[in-house]
Specification:
The chain is an alpha+beta fold. It is 35% helix and 33% strand.
């Protein structure tokens, strides 16, 4: 069964992709949750027209994402955390705190697109994270956990 994705679906595809799925997955999960629609010949034609019209705008967004990725790769983002006497953090640093620190620098990044390269960050130090800025643009960001 072929479906056209209406939204990004993790491990399946991005918005406006035509993907083949098993019929049960399409009918029982994707279509009822409004994540996809059945790919009929007429809906494919509408999709190609929409993609053509959106191509120029998409290129501008991709270029902006590439410049943001390049600028953040050069920076070291500082994330503040409450630290005990031994240098351990109370709790751990998550993608939410990293997204807030990046936002303070003036760049908008969704926390869902941030993947920390360490399992749990529980001490002061320098770490890296992978950020997906666009479906074709990913970059790494170096961040330093410092005492507040």
């Amino acid at each position: 069964m072929e479906v056209i994705l209406k939204q990004d679906v993790k491990n399946l595809g991005y918005k406006d992709d035509v993907v083949k799925v098993k019929p049960g997955y399409g009918r029982n999960f994707l279509i009822p949750k409004n994540l996809a629609e059945i790919a009929t010949p007429s809906s494919k034609k509408v999709l190609t027209e929409t993609v053509k019209q959106r191509a120029f705008k998409e290129q501008k967004i991709k270029t902006a994402a590439e410049t943001t990725a390049a600028k953040l790769k050069e920076m070291i983002v500082k994330v503040g955390a409450k630290v005990g006497e031994s240098g351990k953090i109370f709790g751990s640093v998550t993608s939410v705190q990293l997204a807030d620190a990046i936002k303070k620098l003036g760049y908008e990044v969704d926390r869902k697109n941030i993947t920390l390269n360490e399992d749990s960050i529980k001490s002061v130090g320098t770490y890296t994270a992978t950020i997906r800025f666009h479906k074709d643009v990913t970059g790494t960001v170096t961040f330093e956990v410092v005492q507040e």
